[in-house]
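Subject: Protein record for review, amino acid sequence with C-alpha coordinates
Why sent: The fold of this protein is of interest and is recorded here as C-alpha coordinates.
Enclosed: The protein record, placed directly beneath this head.
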Amino acid sequence: MAALKWAVLFLGAFAVAFVIIITFSQEPFKQMVPAVIFTYHTRPVALYWYVAGALGTGFAAGLSIVLYQYIMLHAALYKKDRRIRKLEADAAERNASLQKNNHDASLPDVHQQP
Protein backbone atom coordinates (compact mmCIF):
# COMPACT_ATOMS: atom_id res chain seq x y z
CA MET A 1 0.00 0.00 0.00
CA ALA A 2 2.85 2.38 0.84
CA ALA A 3 4.48 1.70 -2.54
CA LEU A 4 1.22 2.54 -4.30
CA LYS A 5 0.93 5.79 -2.36
CA TRP A 6 4.49 6.79 -3.33
CA ALA A 7 3.86 5.80 -6.96
CA VAL A 8 0.74 7.99 -7.11
CA LEU A 9 2.63 10.87 -5.51
CA PHE A 10 5.51 10.49 -7.97
CA LEU A 11 3.18 10.29 -10.97
CA GLY A 12 1.27 13.35 -9.79
CA ALA A 13 4.49 15.35 -9.37
CA PHE A 14 5.69 14.16 -12.78
CA ALA A 15 2.41 15.23 -14.40
CA VAL A 16 2.55 18.68 -12.79
CA ALA A 17 6.20 19.12 -13.83
CA PHE A 18 5.36 18.01 -17.37
CA VAL A 19 2.51 20.53 -17.62
CA ILE A 20 4.71 23.33 -16.29
CA ILE A 21 7.55 22.52 -18.70
CA ILE A 22 5.21 22.30 -21.70
CA THR A 23 3.48 25.54 -20.68
CA PHE A 24 6.71 27.48 -20.18
CA SER A 25 8.14 26.24 -23.46
CA GLN A 26 5.36 28.02 -25.38
CA GLU A 27 6.27 31.18 -27.26
CA PRO A 28 4.40 33.75 -25.08
CA PHE A 29 6.42 32.75 -22.01
CA LYS A 30 9.71 33.27 -23.88
CA GLN A 31 9.02 36.96 -24.50
CA MET A 32 11.41 39.38 -22.85
CA VAL A 33 9.54 41.90 -20.69
CA PRO A 34 10.77 44.42 -18.11
CA ALA A 35 9.30 44.55 -14.63
CA VAL A 36 7.84 47.92 -13.68
CA ILE A 37 8.09 48.78 -9.99
CA PHE A 38 6.42 52.18 -9.53
CA THR A 39 8.49 54.22 -12.01
CA TYR A 40 11.55 51.94 -12.13
CA HIS A 41 11.93 49.62 -15.13
CA THR A 42 14.20 46.57 -14.80
CA ARG A 43 16.09 45.07 -17.68
CA PRO A 44 13.98 42.74 -19.85
CA VAL A 45 13.76 39.17 -18.57
CA ALA A 46 11.92 36.17 -19.98
CA LEU A 47 8.38 35.99 -18.66
CA TYR A 48 8.76 32.47 -17.29
CA TRP A 49 11.42 33.73 -14.85
CA TYR A 50 8.82 35.91 -13.17
CA VAL A 51 6.46 32.97 -12.80
CA ALA A 52 9.25 30.69 -11.56
CA GLY A 53 10.35 33.38 -9.09
CA ALA A 54 6.83 33.75 -7.75
CA LEU A 55 6.52 29.96 -7.36
CA GLY A 56 9.89 29.76 -5.61
CA THR A 57 9.09 32.65 -3.29
CA GLY A 58 5.74 31.14 -2.37
CA PHE A 59 7.32 27.75 -1.78
CA ALA A 60 10.03 29.26 0.44
CA ALA A 61 7.51 31.31 2.44
CA GLY A 62 5.21 28.31 2.92
CA LEU A 63 8.09 26.05 3.89
CA SER A 64 9.38 28.55 6.44
CA ILE A 65 5.91 28.91 8.00
CA VAL A 66 5.44 25.15 8.19
CA LEU A 67 8.92 24.70 9.67
CA TYR A 68 8.25 27.36 12.32
CA GLN A 69 4.94 25.75 13.25
CA TYR A 70 6.55 22.31 13.43
CA ILE A 71 9.29 23.55 15.75
CA MET A 72 6.85 25.39 18.01
CA LEU A 73 4.44 22.44 18.23
CA HIS A 74 7.31 20.03 18.85
CA ALA A 75 8.55 22.22 21.72
CA ALA A 76 5.05 22.37 23.23
CA LEU A 77 4.70 18.61 22.87
CA TYR A 78 8.04 18.08 24.60
CA LYS A 79 6.94 20.28 27.54
CA LYS A 80 3.64 18.41 27.84
CA ASP A 81 5.45 15.07 27.68
CA ARG A 82 7.77 16.09 30.54
CA ARG A 83 4.78 17.23 32.59
CA ILE A 84 2.94 13.94 31.96
CA ARG A 85 6.00 11.90 32.97
CA LYS A 86 6.35 13.94 36.18
CA LEU A 87 2.66 13.48 37.03
CA GLU A 88 2.86 9.74 36.32
CA ALA A 89 5.90 9.42 38.60
CA ASP A 90 4.12 11.37 41.37
CA ALA A 91 1.01 9.20 40.97
CA ALA A 92 3.09 6.00 41.12
CA GLU A 93 4.88 7.25 44.24
CA ARG A 94 1.60 8.11 45.96
CA ASN A 95 0.10 4.79 44.91
CA ALA A 96 3.04 2.92 46.39
CA SER A 97 2.76 4.96 49.60
CA LEU A 98 -0.96 4.20 49.88
CA GLN A 99 -0.35 0.51 49.24
CA LYS A 100 2.28 0.44 51.99
CA ASN A 101 0.00 2.28 54.44
CA ASN A 102 -2.92 -0.05 53.68
CA HIS A 103 -0.70 -3.10 54.11
CA ASP A 104 0.68 -1.83 57.44
CA ALA A 105 -2.82 -1.06 58.75
CA SER A 106 -4.12 -4.54 57.92
CA LEU A 107 -1.43 -6.31 60.00
CA PRO A 108 -2.34 -7.01 63.62
CA ASP A 109 -0.36 -5.16 66.24
CA VAL A 110 1.61 -7.86 68.10
CA HIS A 111 2.83 -5.47 70.80
CA GLN A 112 -0.59 -4.90 72.34
CA GLN A 113 -1.39 -6.74 75.60
CA PRO A 114 -4.82 -8.41 75.77
